[in-house]
Amino acid sequence: MTLAGLLFMVLSLAFVWGLTIWCFRKVLTAPAEDHVVKPPDSLGG
Amino acid sequence: MSSDKQQWGSRLGVILAVAGSAVGLGNFLRFPGQAADNGGGAFMIPYFCALLFLGIPIGWAEWTMGRYGGRKGFHSAPAILGVIGRGSWARYLGLIGVLIPLGVSFYYVFIEAWCLSYAIEYAKALFTDTPALGIDAGASLSAQTSASKDFFATTIGRSGDGVLFADGLAPIVWVFFLVFAINLWLVFRGLSGGIETFCKWAMPAMAVCAVFVLIRVLTLPAQSEEQTVANGLGYMWNPNYDKLLDPKAWIAAAGQIFFSLSVGFGVIINYASYLKRKDDLVLSGLTASATNELFEVGFGGMITLTAAFVFLGLAGTTEAVAGGTFGLGFSTLPVVFAHMPLGNLFGALWFFMLFLAAITSSISMYQPTMAFIEEALGIPRKQAMAFVAVLGLIGSGWCVWFSGGMVALGTIDDWVGTFLIVVLAAVQVIAFGWVFGLERGEKEAHEGAHLRIPGFIWFIIKYVAPLYLLITIGRFCWLTLPGWIEGLGANAVARNTMILIAAVVALLAALLAVGTRRWRAQGLDVDGEHPPEDERPARAGGNQVKS
User: Which of A10, B439, B469, B495 has a Cα-to-Cα distance from A32 of 20 to 30 A?
Assistant: First the structure.
């Protein structure tokens, strides 16, 4: 395996692993769809 | 409209379901061959360009159209495209969005049965002394390859039509019935209880199997000075920069991304139609695409050719790549497993992983047809399921019976699973970018979004993607279509398979005509002339307190 081949492999793997981990982290830490903060009763909530 | 209200159970569930639909045999068997043939590591430049500038943007457009259609009460591609494209032209072209998943399911479930059958053979070999698939590792390499090819040909009935039924039912037919029943059962259980629950289990299981096989491949002992893991990885990844100047490499990269992400397949538009108005679709679409890429580049790009190179060397691997997806997967890799320490165990894991990849895709193929029949005829899910079961059994039964030379399978794959995908994608981006409008599209996509889509993506959706797709269709009609038509004339099975497809199209068109009448009678906005119910201002006096 050449150095250029190694570089392409490492960069490609870093990209797909990085993107996947970043996406799933964002999905799992995003607020739930039904998590709506209701205003207090005094404001008609 | 269907009487049963289907819904996704969770955000993660819909992402894994869409990713499951996208991850299939092509990730592990087609991608490595494409990469090695088109510049190795250098192929990743056009490949990632196609992902970022074509696959993900068209995917986002499809997610957006699907969710919008769902808000109007529709879940099938014809009805949704009728709304987006505002008229019957888009509605009838949208039938392709039902034909593709249904037609592909005809042969895909059969292939799924091959994967499970191979996994069972390897699992059986774990407990016996006989070599798996009859491949004797002590024989010459050519004898092993020949034994592997023979096993494959006999298993799938390649030698002639009807041979799988000639002497009672062949084992693969029983496996096919089992796989078909599992598919129907999962789809019948519904989106949340069946498809989503299964994908939440199957996707991590697939990843675990892939990690085990990957570790095994990367720790394989060298077979000679040449046949090492490093050289195997080099076969796949060493760049050939000259290929970057070859348009074919760029077209191959775009094609691979396109088919791998399942855009233009009719599945994403259906799945997204069950999202709620404020459900995110931008991050979800990106995450599903990223998951697919992880399986394709992270596992497919590391496992298949590396293992083949270590045991078969340069010449054997080059021959394997030339053998295409099925040759590499079902003829070459069994020879590799025959040589691999603990090969039966890893063979069972590998083919079980392929089976999971296939079944998470095939269940997504039945769902769009279910949704279409339910809403066209207004019948309950149970009756729609029976309808789909009959259609599926006829279509798949056709592929199993006409197994000779894989002509029936190949004909449907060419015309429905390859050509029509590009046509549907073109219809979708034109309807979305030019009729629905980018301004509305952008607003709709960003409802509840956890990410913003960069501005230049909209330019791509409106101009670049349609241009690419129309050029691809034109190029196909000019270069490939005449040969395909000639092929139909020369082969009766291919010709009759096209008649079967035409009969399915006629049936779907009749159902759409019935459905359109029903939807109009119910006062539904079939031609997308009004905003969805949840967007309309309250009618004067409707919500006002009477004085």
Answer: B439
